[in-house]
Fold:
Amino acid sequence: MKGFTLEELGEKAGICCKYIGEIERGLKNPTVAVLQKIATALDIHAGILLSSFSAQEKDLDRLASINRILHGRDNETLDKINKILEIVFKDKF
Structure:
């Protein structure tokens, strides 16, 4: 969200970076207190994190779908797809 590494965010929030990574990957469910520490470290409202977690499953489904489409494509095709995405989302890079 803010460009922190897991280590930087962990240090700033006072939480083990490994634990933050597990939360990010959906392997751990943080307590409200942990979410508040992360939100404070990111200088955002904790509600933003909660909405992010609820959307995470949909995001993972989308990513899995994209991965299935791209799986097995040759490097030349993947390079072309990458260029197209950079053009379409040029304002996001």
User: Anything to note?
Assistant: The longest helix spans residues 46-70. Helices lie at 6-13, 17-24, 32-42, 46-70, 75-88. The mean pLDDT is 84. The two ends are 14 Å apart (CA to CA).
